[in-house]
UniProtKB/TrEMBL annotation:
Keywords: Amino-acid biosynthesis, Branched-chain amino acid biosynthesis, Cytoplasm, Leucine biosynthesis, Magnesium, Manganese, Metal-binding, NAD, Oxidoreductase. One of its GO terms (molecular function) is NAD binding. This is 3-isopropylmalate dehydrogenase. It catalyses: (2R,3S)-3-isopropylmalate + NAD(+) = 4-methyl-2-oxopentanoate + CO2 + NADH. Binds 1 Mg(2+) or Mn(2+) ion per subunit. Catalyzes the oxidation of 3-carboxy-2-hydroxy-4-methylpentanoate (3-isopropylmalate) to 3-carboxy-4-methyl-2-oxopentanoate. The product decarboxylates to 4-methyl-2 oxopentanoate. The record marks 135, 186 as: Important for catalysis. InterPro entries: ICDH/IPMDH (IPR050501), IsoCit/isopropylmalate_DH_CS (IPR019818), IsoPropMal-DH-like_dom (IPR024084), LeuB_actb (IPR023698). Its EC number is 1.1.1.85. Mg(2+) binds at residues 219, 243, 247. One of its GO terms (cellular component) is cytoplasm. Homodimer. Its cofactor is Mn(2+); Mg(2+).
């Protein structure tokens, strides 16, 4: 028996709708296992910002820290200036809780229509660095609004930050059948950061001699993701390249309705956070149209992270079985219907 204290940040738009179904899946997966879940809802996002001007206070952060994991729906709303919630809430959580491994699996489930004619057997994970790069906000602008404006966004790459994420990626590669790691960067142009990443991968490879390493410039990686995605096993890359590549990766494996992610603090000094890759989709919010599958798959990552491996497998299997029956279905199901069907399958 065990107890999970779960912080829930449903957030904006379709976030509340998909999180509800994610929680249903979680409950179903743990039913009868002796493990209980206690959720705490955090009122964060556009509503809170409009009401109070706050995005994420120290009090919120301390309260969140007292949990074992976080389930997040989506953050962002057209009524809030771009960047306010992204930086002040979502990225603040990732940075403050040291989520340096942003794990984004890409698997083409049987039955899913890929936009690629011959996708092959696609099953890779992107280990996206989560606490550095241009996301740090190290930059600035001068002479703003004049013809002489200069706007800088500096990519921060530390030996400490690169090494820890590279080591995590190697460990993940070593645990997979193909044992292959691809570093994606752009060291022919971004020579300072690029060479730090390259040297780090070379050095850490010595600890994982059975992992095969290769390297792709990020532009070439986008070609292979479309022409030969089955060549990838584990990709390790920086925060911004990882952001871009994982949207492409989602697109080739059935779209962001299916793409799950984990923001992991591997040292477990703070709770890890699980969220669908998609955003708040304000255009379809409140209509029961959102696909909760990405959130349910994120719940599988959550269960896995907390050591409930069997429960995680059952959630994944339920999703795979549900997806296999989607093609040619007579009717598109609502968010709640998909959630209910998945929960029923998980229960067995
Ligand atoms: C993601 C999102 C975020 C990111 C945005 C909303 C800040 O695109 O989770 O991929 O860039 O990391
Ligand atoms: Mn993104």
């Amino acid at each position: 028996a065990q107890h999970i204290r779960l912080a829930v940040v449903a957030g904006d738009g379709i976030g509340t709708e998909v999180v509800e179904q994610g929680l249903l899946a979680l409950e179903s997966a743990l039913h009868g296992s002796g493990t209980t879940v206690a959720t705490t809802d955090f009122d964060l996002g556009a509503r809170r910002w409009h009401a109070t001007g706050e995005t994420l206070t120290d009090t919120d952060l301390d309260a969140i820290r007292a949990h074992d994991a976080i389930l997040l729906g989506a953050i962002g709303d057209p009524t809030v200036p771009s960047g306010v919630l992204e930086r002040g809430l979502l990225l603040k959580l990732r940075f403050a809780l040291d989520h340096y491994v942003n794990l984004r699996p890409s698997k083409l489930f049987p039955g899913v229509a890929s936009p690629l004619a011959n996708p092959g057997d696609v099953d890779f994970v992107v280990v996206r660095e989560g606490t550095e790069g241009p996301y740090v906000g190290n930059g600035g602008a001068i002479r703003v609004g004049t013809p002489h404006e200069v706007a800088n966004e500096v990519s921060v790459n530390t030996a400490f930050g690169v090494e820890r994420v590279v080591r995590d990626a190697f460990a993940r590669a070593a645990a997979r059948p193909r044992k292959k790691l691809t570093l994606v960067h752009k060291h022919n142009v971004l020579v300072h950061a690029g060479h730090l990443w390259r040297r780090t991968v070379e050095a850490v490879n010595a600890e994982f001699p059975d992992v095969t390493v290769d390297y792709l410039h990020v532009d070439a990686a986008t070609i292979f993701l479309v022409t030969n995605p089955s060549r990838f096993d584990v990709i390790v890359t920086d925060n911004l390249f990882g952001d871009i590549l994982t949207d492409l990766a989602a697109a080739i494996t059935g779209g962001i309705g299916l793409a799950a992610s984990a923001n992991i603090n591997p040292d477990r000094t703070a709770p890890s956070m699980f969220e669908p890759v998609h955003g708040s989709a304000p255009d379809i919010a409140g209509q029961g149209k959102a696909d909760p599958t990405a959130t349910v798959l994120s719940v599988a990552l959550l269960l896995e992270h907390l050591g409930h491996t069997d429960a995680a497998r059952r959630v994944e299997a339920a999703v795979a079985a549900d997806i296999a029956e989607r093609r040619g279905a007579e009717r598109v199901r609502s968010t709640a219907e998909v959630g209910k069907d998945l929960a029923a399958r998980i229960a067995g």
